Amino acid sequence: xxxxxxxxxxxxxxxxxxxxxxxxxxxxxxxxxxxxxxxxxxxxxxxxxxxxxxxxxxxxxxxxxxxxxxxxxxxxxxxxxxxxxxxxxxxxxxxxxxxxxxxxxxxxxxxxxxxxxxxxxxxxxxxxxxxxxxxxxxxxxxxxxxxxxxxxxxxxxxxxxxxxxxxxxxxxxxxxxxxxxxxxxxxxxxxxxxxxxxxxxxxxxxxxxxxxxxxxxxxxxxxxxxxxxxxxxxxxxxxxxxxxxxxxxxxxxxxxxxxxxxxxxxxxxxxxxxxxxxxxxxxxxxxxxxxxxxxxxxxxxxxxxxxxxxxxxxxxxxxxxxxxxxxxxxxxxxxxxxxxxxxxxxxxxxxxxxxxxxxxxxxxxxxxxxxxxxxxxxxxxxxxxxxxxxxxxxxxxxxxxxxxxxxxxxxxxxxxxxxxxxxxxxxxxxxxxxxxxxxxxxxxxxxxxxxxxxxxxxxxxxxxxxxxxxxxxxxxxxxxxxxxxxxxxxxxxxxxxxxxxxxxxxxxxxxxxxxxxxxxxx
Amino acid sequence: xxxxxxxxxxxxxxxxxxxxxxxxxxxxxxxxxxxxxxxxxxxxxxxxxxxxxxxxxxxxxxxxxxxxxxxxxxxxxxxxxxxxxxxxxxxxxxxxxxxxxxxxxxxxxxxxxxxxxxxxxxxxxxxxxxxxxxxxxxxxxxxxxxxxxxxxxxxxxxxxxxxxxxxxxxxxxxxxxxxxxxxxxxxxxxxxxxxxxxxxxxxxxxxxxxxxxxxxxxxxxxxxxxxxxxxxxxxxxxxxxxxxxxxxxxxxxxxxxxxxxxxxxxxxxxxxxxxxxxxxxxxxxxxxxxxxxxxxxxxxxxxxxxxxxxxxxxxxxxxxxxxxxxxxxxxxxxxxxxxxxxxxxxxxxxxxxxxxxxxxxxxxxxxxxxxxxxxxxxxxxxxxxxxxxxxxxxxxxxxxxxxxxxxxxxxxxxxxxxxxxxxxxxxxxxxxxxxxxxxxxxxxxxxxxxxxxxxxxxxxxxxxxxxxxxxxxxxxxxxxxxxxxxxxxxxxxxxxxxxxx
Lengths: 522, 501
Description:
The complex is a heterodimer.
Chain A: H1 5-9, H2 18-35, H3 41-65, E1 74-82, E2 87-93, H4 95-114, H5 121-140, H6 144-153, H7 155-165, H8 170-203, H9 210-216, H10 221-238, H11 247-254, H12 257-267, H13 269-282, H14 284-289, H15 291-311, H16 315-336, H17 339-370, H18 381-384, H19 386-400, H20 406-421, H21 423-448, H22 464-482, H23 485-505, H24 515-521
Antiparallel strand pairs in A: 1-2
Chain B: H1 3-6, H2 18-36, H3 44-70, E1 73-75, E2 80-82, H4 84-111, H5 117-134, H6 138-156, H7 163-194, H8 199-205, H9 216-233, H10 242-249, H11 252-277, H12 282-305, H13 310-332, H14 339-365, H15 380-383, H16 385-399, H17 405-419, H18 423-448, H19 462-480, H20 483-490
Antiparallel strand pairs in B: 1-2
């Protein structure tokens, strides 16, 4: 069997296939939940919690045993699946995907334990676990075909979660979400097949293996650009990038709280992760060529999202638009292609997942209590529920990017790194940070300050369960904000490796990319 | 003299047409015994029909192995080709016949009927399909086409208590007659241009890719008319207008059979004619197939979305599927592509999917076979969760969601189109698939997310239930383990004169 260059470089061939288990345990959990009887809800819940907690445990174990200064793929597991089409079950993790996997692992048990779906809990949990498997698979796949099917399969549980447990216009929002994303994937599928078919000439056999294709084949300039664009459409819809973002506010607003947390926390990252893993890695020349376009779209997204967020009257929609802005930063960092900006992008993916997930959770709690999300109807909550307000404050500040909290780390690195290679875009984007402070603080002021009117004066304080849940999020926010080193030093080697790959295949030169990084690795 | 005693029969390889003989015997037995002994236990006919299918499948599996050893050939004075292409097609038709026979039993029971006639007609139709897909001569092909069509006309109109059924029968008969006439005229013109009706001989007359001295106008018009006839049978746009009406009016098991075996026969005939007889005229017919494919995927999926009757939705979705298979046919026009293998794989998977789907429709439609509007599917998940789950799996497969057979099928044709560098066609098909997905979502929304209009839950007859379960199981199995099917499809080859293996 063929052992790819990168696979060999990663010394780990763990005896326990932890990555496959990360995908399969949620699947088994989902099946178990679906097969258990409706009449024993406690068993249903227990098995869902157990399987998600086991997955979380494995992801944390993965984090602990990940070797820090290695840029290649680790824990690689590879088996032939459909030999006729050159498809293999090829999973691996590196610094870029590691924290997204861990985030996925942690977020799901929190959602399962912490948020009630209110009806049909069994089906809800089954879909949720299936979603977890799909997301895990997407982040871990090192085979184009495998990635595509996980990327696609994610749509099905999410569609049913939004459509089945969402708010008033849920069916509309769910359908819009499904069709938008599938539209993007339509191009990607053709792109994936074409990539494999064209790479065959250089490789000598038909394969969908990401590492083999990226390392061993080179596409003609215009071919590579077309292929890159076909992938980029799918990722741009998923991120979502301006002007393909219109499904996001609808999906977020109509999704149940758990769905929103997952959507913002990990699902959107499939797009930004895709740009890094497939866009830059497979088509470095084309990515550098498309740089101005994507920097511009990202910058427009940052400003557009911020301005639109300022105008919202619905608290959940406001958070949704703030996501559009934050993801703009990630794309900015991705296409600036410097060591710092890419590291910042990866960190920002994780941090945005934590803080926006927490924000959606808090908005969900407000809705539970008041049955409204309209900012105009909320007032003076701080005086009746001070702990709740404090939690909201911390999470909000992290979302704004205040130093000392996690949001600062990624955003700052992105801006510093991008300034070198994309100066004017960065200058415009930086104003987005100020706008973020504007719309979030303004919203906080309207919702929490002032004298509570009659409806708001009975606002319930945070319960113990909610408090424990928020404590987990705030713990992550604080730890990453104060001590980001463990995170960054695991991300950086992989990012440097990626930049080296880009520099080798294009005329792009990352200015601050010190050569000693490269030497360290050799 | 002793001529009479010295008579020796022609040396005919009857084993090469064994499927036909098995089915012919079954038809005779079913009709004869049915009229001699009026009271047979319920279900006898269905069991006999299904058993004949099983026998054919087993025989064909042996044939598959033998062809691997002995190579392809043509029998009966070169009019019947013996190759893995026809074996694969015959297996699909036999599977379709077996599944449909089981559903037909439940259909007749529910309507308070019984009797061997419908089964005999189904088997005759299957024989017609088998002749079509193994014919190596245009005249024989036409015979098969007519056998299939005539049986189908009667089957469509077989529900005499339902007016739409009669109407559908007439419509299909009149339009189908036209299509057959086009087809026959096409044969005549091709004969005029090439001097033969035998596919391999026709191929031999085109010794070069370009030949201007020959009667090219005759040939081109002939190819065109032939394509019209077959495009009608596969319901490719713009020859699809009969599809929704006939599919809606026909009894659900008949619809399932038309959409599966009928399409398989027409597509295999199309592939064989294009890939053998007209192989060297690929530049003439490829653009036509390209246009048919693009028109079918788009028109099919767009029109499917605006329907309010599930049967009509599935009818238009079958037009889209025909377009997808045409994408594979178009890819087969390019040398070195595996368009033929992917088209055949698609046909097999689609057959299973479509029979499963129409069986669900049959179950929900209730007595009288009339309740097929989208309203009737509302809240099915509350009333019949298992049925709704099965239908959801089938619909997701039709939409081409991963881990289902439908995805394997779609991926296969798109892959062969991309490998043949028909990028525009591949992208068009995928975009149409997204539009089409909206249709399946609509049905799923209706089943899962809307409240039931009434509390009545449709009874699921045992055999129909078994058919649904087995089609869903097969679809998922292929979704996870497609390797064996793809390997088998790679071995498919068509009989050609002088071709090795």
